[in-house]
Write a structure and sequence with these properties.
The complex is a heterodimer of chains A (about 400) and B (about 300).
Chain A (H helix, E strand, L loop, with lengths): L1 H25 L7 E7 L6 H20 L3 E2 L5 E2 L1 E7 L4 H12 L5 E3 L4 H9 L17 E3 L14 E3 L4 H15 L5 E7 L3 H17 L3 E8 L7 H10 L3 E5 L2 H13 L6 E4 L6 H11 L3 E4 L6 H12 L8 H18 L8 H14 L2 E3 L4 E4 L5 E2 L3 E6 L2 E6 L4
Parallel strand pairs in A: 1-4, 1-5, 5-6, 6-7, 8-9, 8-10, 10-11
Antiparallel strand pairs in A: 2-3, 12-16, 13-14, 14-15, 16-17
Helix pairs in contact in A: 2-10, 2-11, 3-4, 5-6, 8-9, 11-12
Chain B lengths: L1 H25 L7 H18 L4 H23 L5 H20 L4 E3 L2 E3 L12 H4 L4 H24 L1 H11 L1 H6 L4 H27 L9 H14 L4 H18 L5 H17 L7 H12 L2
Antiparallel strand pairs in B: 1-2
Helix pairs in contact in B: 1-6, 1-9, 1-10, 1-11, 2-3, 2-4, 2-9, 3-9, 6-7, 10-11
Chain lengths: ~400, ~300
């Protein structure tokens, strides 16, 4: 009895493992297609980010293929093919996923969602290109979402198409100062245990706001999984600041905003984190978020941006400042692949990866959904941006700093 | 193959973590402090290789010793409590250590780059393996040599008088004490040994991921640490290994293609496995079964 149970259990496990590995590798067939690997958090607390990225990537690749695909070195055209992996916003899983991608025929990896995954991932890449003594992975990784400052400099194989928050918040606080000269003080609220939100408050908002003439009265801290914000909001209320700047993701931003309503905390102005300029915030607390101002690098205001938003919606996702960057990445990659003349041959994957990396590293300017994107020597982007505010359950454009 | 060697690495690290809890569980103590000792190993070894420029082997030994000493110190107050109280106390200790790293800031400049632990932002650029040209296979072999040594040591302990003493304390403390077993020495010794092994695991983990931060060492990791030996079975060191392969190889990696369903199945399959094999995946009966396979002919 036990024998048969064990044998059955073992057989089911073995079949499932074999099936899963088989399913993944089957996608990378010997056809002459340009294999693109995407990865991000498709499960867990931040799953919506990965789902949106996959939807936008699918739509962007469909658009490229509809226009004929990618022109290869021999003049033929090849279709792009996407395989998307879930890393659950977990560093160990992210590393495992990237190793799997590196062992496949993918010429480039697009992701990850979370900065705490991006940091270790970039760490296992070769630091300096051509360094024979460094056994790190050699595959270009182009990031759409992980936004914590300065990560691409970890490796010359790492590139990002994320907005520059330092520039965005510096400009935002200066603009607020010019529009509302009566406002003098700022109080911060920070989701302290998440790499991006923590970095953005301590290294961006808290440093840029005094430069624009504001006095920072203090800060309240909470954690990503917190559900009670009574104490933090009480501290906020006591500070009586003119502006409350919340550096937190949609889940706790909504929790704090609801608690602020309950405790009747009404600052003259609310400023939010870039990542909260998404539908999740409006779905979670549209009424409480009314009026919150956030700088963002995406809004469907151009034809290309509208196409990206439509494509995301078609694949049951939402285009926001993070996922829309994935659209731009696909278009940049097409341009780089054609300029570098990749072969898309199964036995030339390493050469194609190197060519794409070199092409990305040499870029100084690319087209973006809102306008031209500048590229830095460290693999980062300087993107155009807008200020949006929540208005009647929608994100409405408040100001375009480029005008 | 790189992917499979990478998978072997992470299975090896988690096996070491599970074995660290296995030692303590032998004495009947349920601990959730292993993630704390694991983090000590991770941070200390990373500081030694990155800031002091040490080789991984001495760094690993010093880090494991530091974790073992802290575990021994924790073991003394743990003598006064048992059962659920010990679980709560060790969770509190684990969180204390995690929050210590959350607030720990010590950085120096090396070759023009500021490196070292930076509080909530973590400790990055722990790149001993790639910087020294170790391939994924080299690292996997290194890890599995260590796993084999630890398993061999524990397997030998299980069959020695020391193992019998550990089990005696685990089965009935009063009876063990009445036959002259020094409970203090056994319990503190088990905690220290578990801490030492967890420290080794943490040291390898830090160099595997190249970036560590306090969030890596939370209650979830501590839960996994005791889940491995409990799911695998406490009668045999190989049970922990089988449980890690089941969880990390099959549930986490093998079912990745299932997306969000994976999380749902994760819990359901563990419950199913524990129902099918309530005394662990490797219990006395399965050991007899395997022996039978080799002796029938």
């Amino acid at each position: 009895m036990l024998d048969s149970k064990l044998v059955r259990l073992g057989a089911v496990a073995a079949l499932a493992v074999a099936a899963s590995f088989g399913t993944q590798s089957e996608a990378f067939s010997a056809e002459k297609t340009v294999q693109i690997a995407g990865f991000g958090a498709k499960s867990g607390v931040v799953r919506s980010f990965g789902i949106n990225t996959e939807a936008v990537l699918t739509g962007a690749i469909e658009a490229v293929n509809a226009a004929g695909g990618v022109k290869l070195a021999d003049g033929s055209m090849a279709m792009m093919e996407l395989t998307f992996y879930d890393d659950r916003c977990n560093a160990e899983e992210g590393i495992s996923v990237l190793r799997r991608i590196a062992g496949s025929g993918a010429v480039v990896a697009i992701g990850p969602t979370c900065s705490n995954v991006a940091e270790p991932l970039f760490g296992i890449l070769q630091k300096n290109v051509g360094d024979e003594g460094d056994s790190g992975l050699q595959i270009p990784v182009f990031t759409d979402t992980a936004i914590k400052g300065g990560l691409a400099k970890i490796s010359q194989w790492a590139f990002r198409n994320v907005p520059n928050e330092n520039q965005m918040y510096k400009s935002l606080f200066e603009w607020i100062n010019s529009e509302h000269p009566d406002l003098k003080t700022v109080y911060g609220g920070v989701e302290e245990d998440f790499a991006h939100s923590r970095f953005t408050w301590h290294k961006v908002m808290k440093e840029r706001s005094p430069e624009a003439g504001y006095e920072v009265l203090g800060e309240s801290k909470w954690l990503l999984n917190d559900t009670n914000f009574t104490t933090q909001v009480r501290q906020m209320k006591k500070a009586k600041a003119d502006i409350v700047a919340i550096s937190a993701h949609p889940f706790t931003t909504c929790g704090v905003l609801k608690e602020m309503t309950r405790q009747r905390v009404k600052p003259k102005l609310l400023v939010g984190l870039t990542s909260s300029s998404s539908m999740e915030t409006l779905q979670g607390c549209a009424d409480q978020a009314e009026g919150i101002i956030i700088p963002t690098s995406f809004a469907p205001v151009t034809e290309a941006a509208k196409a990206a938003a439509d494509a995301a919606a078609k694949y049951e996702g939402s285009a926001d400042l993070h996922s829309a960057a994935a659209w731009e990445i696909v278009m940049i990659l097409k341009q780089v692949m054609e300029a570098q003349g990749i072969s898309a041959d199964g036995d030339a994957v390493d050469a194609d990866r190197r060519a794409i990396r070199d092409g990305l590293a040499s870029l100084k300017e690319t087209d973006g959904l809102l306008g031209k994107i500048q590229r830095t020597d460290e693999g980062e982007a300087v993107k155009p941006y807008l200020y949006v505010h929540a208005q009647a359950g929608q994100w409405a454009i408040l100001h375009d700093p480029s005008q | 193959m790189d992917f499979f060697f990478g998978l072997l690495q992470i299975i090896g690290v988690h096996t070491i973590l599970g074995l660290s809890a296995y030692v303590v569980l032998q004495t009947g103590q349920v601990t959730l402090a292993q993630a704390g000792f694991f983090s000590i190993g991770a941070y200390v070894s990373a500081m030694l290789t990155v800031l002091a420029g040490w080789h991984i082997v001495p760094a690993l030994l010093v880090a494991a010793t530091a974790a073992g000493i802290v575990a021994g110190i924790v073991g003394f107050p743990a003598l006064r409590i048992k059962g659920l109280m010990l679980v709560v106390a060790t969770i509190a200790f684990g969180e204390f250590i995690r929050l210590f790293w959350f607030n720990f800031d010590y950085q120096i400049e090396k070759k023009g780059i500021v490196v070292g632990p930076q509080g909530g932002e973590g400790f990055k650029q722990i790149r001993f393996f790639p910087e020294n040209g170790w391939s994924t296979l080299d690292v996997a072999i290194f890890i599995w040599v260590i796993v084999a040594l630890i398993m061999l040591a524990l397997w030998w302990t299980d069959r020695s008088r020391a193992g019998a003493v550990l089990r005696a304390v685990g089965e009935d403390e009063l009876a063990a004490q009445s036959v002259g077993i020094n409970l203090t020495a056994v319990k503190v010794g088990a905690f220290a040994a578990g801490g030492f092994i967890a420290g080794i695991g943490g040291a390898i983990y830090a160099h595997y991921t190249t970036h560590i931060e306090h969030l890596n060492f939370g209650v979830m990791l501590a839960t996994f640490a005791i889940a491995y030996p409990i799911l695998g079975g406490l009668r045999n060191v190989f049970g922990t290994l089988v449980a890690v392969i089941f969880i990390q190889g099959f549930l986490v990696e093998g079912l990745r293609f299932m997306g969000d369903w994976r999380n749902l199945l994760f819990g359901a399959l563990i419950v199913l496995a524990m129902n099918v094999q309530p005394r662990g995946l490797i219990d006395e009966r399965s050991v007899r079964l395997v022996r039978g396979l080799f002796t029938r002919n």
